[in-house]
Amino acid sequence: MNITCKLAIAKNNIIKLQEENHQLRSENKMILMKTQQHLEVTKVDVETELQTYKHSRQGLDEMYNDARRQLREESQLRQDVENELSVQVSMKHEIELAMKLLEKDIHEKQDTLIGLRQQLEEVKAINIEMYQKLQGYEDGLKEKNEIIARLEEKTNKITVAMRQLEQRLQQAEKAQMEAEDEDEKYLQECLSQSDSLQKQISQKEKQLIQLETDLKIEKEWRQTLQEDLQKEKDALSHLKNETQQITNLKKEFLNLQDENQQLKKIYREQEQALQELGNKLSESKLKIEDIKEANKALQGLVWLKDKEATHCKLCEKEFSLSKRKHHCRNCGEIFCNACSDNELPLPSSPKPVRVCDSCHALLIQRCSSNLP
């Protein structure tokens, strides 16, 4: 009777261990599914961000090439203007055409500078977005490391449970050996007894067969547990490899940020060169205006200097970068673009030149009065 009670207790323990094993398997599967989904989502995000960064980098390269081309063109234009100034100082009409070309170039340069500044702001916004996404990836890595630590804890628990199961199996085997020894002794004693004792012996043999089958089942179950442990170890190694790949991607992103900063430095140097070029062009413009003033003085006209005028003669608005100065070719005074947006031929120049609104009205009145 003691043997049967022990066997029943052992069976109950085995059933409980099987249930615990099933629960652990289901929990491990759920954790693995969640980690795989999370890793797939992070991989897709990293790939999209790399593509956007490559596109932005190509755009910056194109901008840099365009700026270099514009610098070359501007240097060529500057050489042409200097040659024309040195050769054609005596020719008034060609100097005026060169002035118009210089003014157009300055306006175009200002527009390109504004466009480059807007593109720089866009690049700064992209860098801020990339930095925020990097922080999100670092948080995701921390969560993954926590999940890996939990998985390792669970694997440790499973190994402890396996060791306990092995100890219980050893105890069951010892109990079986002891039961076999007791059965042999009991058979020797029962040879002299009646048929009723033989029936009990046959029942005990049946119970032993059942125990053997249970032991075989437990061994098979142990093998399956070992295989599951191997699979979980493989999954953990796979997760570690993926985390290493993410850290490599992070290093590549930092390298790209360094390259972006170098490109910014190059852009700033080019912007300084453009500003110096603009200053030199403004100086050349002032020289041309001085030459014109000298020509006007020779002709008896009063040519007002740029430094002497701070407001428009007609509307009295203050001059600035957006509101530029313009000389009237008839009276020599300085006006804004709105008050001198007229062109008429003068006695000194048969071609149409810039004239202020008041001179324009007077000249038209003279022409109408001279007509028959």
TrEMBL record:
<keyword id="KW-0479">Metal-binding</keyword>
<feature type="domain" description="FYVE-type">
    <location>
        <begin position="306"/>
        <end position="364"/>
    </location>
</feature>
<dbReference type="InterPro" id="IPR000306">
    <property type="entry name" value="Znf_FYVE"/>
</dbReference>
<keyword id="KW-0862">Zinc</keyword>
<dbReference type="InterPro" id="IPR017455">
    <property type="entry name" value="Znf_FYVE-rel"/>
</dbReference>
<keyword id="KW-0175">Coiled coil</keyword>
<dbReference type="InterPro" id="IPR047335">
    <property type="entry name" value="RUFY1-3"/>
</dbReference>
<dbReference type="GO" id="GO:0005737">
    <property type="term" value="C:cytoplasm"/>
</dbReference>
<feature type="coiled-coil region">
    <location>
        <begin position="64"/>
        <end position="294"/>
    </location>
</feature>
<dbReference type="Pfam" id="PF01363">
    <property type="entry name" value="FYVE"/>
</dbReference>
<keyword id="KW-0863">Zinc-finger</keyword>
<dbReference type="GO" id="GO:0008270">
    <property type="term" value="F:zinc ion binding"/>
</dbReference>
<dbReference type="InterPro" id="IPR013083">
    <property type="entry name" value="Znf_RING/FYVE/PHD"/>
</dbReference>
<protein>
    <recommendedName>
        <fullName>FYVE-type domain-containing protein</fullName>
    </recommendedName>
</protein>
<dbReference type="InterPro" id="IPR011011">
    <property type="entry name" value="Znf_FYVE_PHD"/>
</dbReference>
